[in-house]
């Protein structure tokens, strides 16, 4: 079997820089590498409903937003199938069978789920669908026979859970499912980009994001609010670059060319860091530089998205076609899984014969 990619996003808001460096950028790179036989990019509306069940409008409103961002970032529908999760019923069916292979204690132990449960204030009242979403994610990954899952670091526990399910399923029912591998960004900080407030993760739910369609003005405002070094009060004070969000973002986003273009008195980031650490370099100067760098990253995405918004019939067609392809693939996996589990009654050529033989024996 070839190399296959599956990834996705929850349609719970606009996409942000964390999505871009954590996953989207790698998806585009891998898509264009020509090394993958099939690529599936899923808008995870079923998963989004596990904690937004009372607010379905939010989910509905963000589905096409996701497609627009994908296309604006360079996803090519001729190479990547964009699909809507709830429109592929085989995923739900597989989830149901996988649930037997996972204990509730195991689901409670998932560190990403644990921190999301705290963040959402569920307390003891966790919806069972939410606790179970890693199992549903295992269904998504395996339905497409994915070998490679390009995601951020927060998804590591999900891939581990998927591997456990794959191993159990194959052990009990025979070799059926493909064992997937996570594909993380090379740069450490991109694996979990912090929010502008310095919190561990930029996330829609934490309201600490810079969105991929932000205007130059909005970008500037967000950068000016950024957390730096609280002890760096006066320009001449020595400053810390560790844990300083401006430097973390520069680590991820700025290139040497940006210095020639916007800050020619420094050759590269190492020089800028050294000056900051020594003292004599103010926050406003580094923030202005970062604003320029981020504006250059976001501007082409924002402009492409605006252009696509004038062609929504085309965008709708893209996701409809991608979903049709996804159904073919996922249905084939479901048939294979059910056959190996022995619950393929009407498709099996031997089922009725077996029944007759058994009845005669008794
Ligand atoms: P929500 O708050 O609704 O969970 P989110 O901002 O966490 O939204 P998701 O849709 O859950 O976004 O994540 C989609 C993909 O983007 C995943 O692969 C995830 O690892 C990646 N991702 C999200 N935020 C970041 C981040 N701050 N740094 C790196 N990767 C990220
Ligand atoms: Mg998330």
Explain what this protein looks like in three dimensions.
The chain is elongated. The protein folds into 2 domains: 4-192 and 312-356, Rossmann fold (3-Layer(aba) Sandwich), CATH 3.40.50; 216-308, Tyrosyl-Transfer RNA Synthetase, CATH 1.10.240. The protein contains 16 helices and 5 strands. With 362 residues, the protein is mostly helical. 39% of the residues are buried. The longest helix is centred in the last third of the chain and has 30 residues, at 312-341. It has a 3-stranded parallel sheet with strand order 1-2-3. Adenosine-5'-triphosphate binds at residues 9-10, 12, 18-19, 22-23, 151-152, 154-155, 191-193, 201-205.
Short summary:
This protein is mainly alpha-helical. Helix content is 56%, strand content 6%. The protein folds into two domains: 4-192 and 312-356, 3-Layer(aba) Sandwich (Rossmann fold); 216-308, Tyrosyl-Transfer RNA Synthetase.
